[in-house]
Amino acid sequence: MSYLPNCINFKKNYSGTVCPLVTKRIYEYSRYTQQIRTRLIRSYAIEALDKNRFDLAVSSVFTLYPNVNISLAADIIFSFQAIVQYLDTICSHYSSSTESFLKLIFSSLKDATNIRSDDFIKYFTFFPSKDDDGYLSILVEKCRQKVLLLPAFSVVRDYIVAYLTLFIDLQVLKYSSDEADIEFNLLSWSNAHNQRYSEISSWEFCMSVDSPLMLQLLLALATNPDLTEQEVENISNAFFPWICGIQKILEGYLSYNDSLFSRSINYIFLYTNLKEYEDRITYFIKKAYENKNSYFKKYGSIIKILLSIYATHPKADAGMKKITSKVILRAGGRGMFIYTGLINVIRAKNQLLSNKDQ
């Protein structure tokens, strides 16, 4: 049985390398936020950094991939996700996001992963305050510095460009749409792009695109100097849409109540009832497991760790969620109690949750 060794390996890598690095980087980036003169934007920046603790716990499944440089991978994922979370936090709070503003600030993600460009534009040109005093540009440069260190970036570059284009398009559409039009706009956009995945609905495709997990994992893979295009193709087919969809649907599950009072779209609102949600998450898990024997030995553990992180979260234990959490864990299959025990140990040591989730 490989469950216990995989858990021990994950615990060692996460607690020994990922968590200390994230703590160090949050402290470092927090100092950069002090140069933001506009108090509201500074509060968004600080809030976004705090959320990165949980983001990195989720994406730390990369530690189970063969031949990944764990320290470098954690660093590049943190740098990239710091930008994603900062933009998402601003857009979630800002009620008048224009298409021009959104295209401009989300172009920072392209700059952050473009090793051939040194020119950064004023991303906040169309924002009321006109500036965040260069904070986003600092995040972009920090990420680019890490990208330059990736020995196999050329192998993943085209995949990153493809997924990032979809991701940015979706963010612009999501945050520029009126509440009354957003569902129609998402479905129209999906119908124009979702030609390969007939087994999922149009908005489930949007949900999978909306997960940054695929981009994070490609960056992690690029730390392996011996990475091949075939390996990248394998992970792309295994993770998208199924594992990306699982990550996003579980995120929506946890943030259900919070989403009622924010501008962030929660895709699980589009399910007709809790039973349909349970059926679909079970289906996504089943499809993800179908790749188990065709990829690498620890692939199944990646799915189990993701499910455990979300299903054992304190927010997943309230009211009817407690029943659904049991459905999710049951769908995870054999050995889930070992993985949930692992995550609970990590959580008990305050290494998993952001401050606002405790």
What is the fold's blueprint, element by element?
Layout: H1 3-33, H2 39-59, H3 70-93, H4 99-112, H5 135-147, H6 153-176, H7 182-193, H8 202-209, H9 213-221, H10 229-254, H11 256-259, H12 274-289, H13 299-311, H14 321-331, H15 336-348
Helix pairs in contact: 1-2, 1-3, 1-15, 2-3, 3-4, 3-5, 3-9, 4-5, 4-6, 6-9, 7-8, 8-10, 9-10, 10-12, 10-13, 12-14, 13-14, 13-15
Protein name: Tetraprenyl-beta-curcumene synthase
InterPro entries: YtpB-like
Pfam families: DUF2600 (PF10776)
Brief digest:
The chain has 15 helices and no strands. With 358 residues, it is an all-alpha fold.
How would you sum up this structure, described in words?
InterPro entries: YtpB-like. With 358 residues, this protein is an all-alpha fold. It has a single domain (3-175, 184-190, 197-353), classed as Farnesyl Diphosphate Synthase. The protein has 15 helices and no strands. Helix 3 packs antiparallel against helix 4. The two termini are 34 Å apart.
> How many individual helices?
15
Distance between the termini: 34 Å
Tell me the radius of gyration: 19 Å
Mean pLDDT: 88
The largest sheet is: none
- CATH architecture grouping: Orthogonal Bundle
Shape: globular
Question: What fraction of residues sit in β-strands?
Answer: under 5%
Order of helices and strands: HHHHHHHHHHHHHHH
Give the count of structural domains.
1
Helix content: 55-70%
Main traits of this protein?
Farnesyl Diphosphate Synthase, 67% helix, mainly alpha, 358 residues, single chain, globular, 0% strand
